[in-house]
Amino acid sequence: MDLSIIIPSFNERDNIVPIVERIHTALRDEPIRYEIWFVDDSTDDTVDVLSEMEAVDKQVHVYHRDSERGLASAVVAGFARARGEYLIVMDADLQHPPELLPEIYRNLAAGSDIVIPSRFVSGGSDGGLGPLRKLVSWVARVIGQLALRRLRKISDCTSGYFGVNRNVVDGAQLDPIGWKILIEVLVKGRYKTVHEIPYEFLARDAGESKMSMREQWNYFRHLFRLVSQSPADRRFFLFCAIGASGVVVNLVVLSILKYALRVPDTSASIIASLVAMLSNYIWNDQITWRASGQRKWNIKLPLFIGISLVGIALTTLVMDGFRAVGVAVPIGQVIGILVSTVWSYMMNNRLTWKDTQEKVREEVVVTREEGRIRSV
Ligand code: GDD
Ligand code: MN
Question: Domain GtrA/DPMS transmembrane: where (predicted)?
Answer without folding.
Answer: 239-353
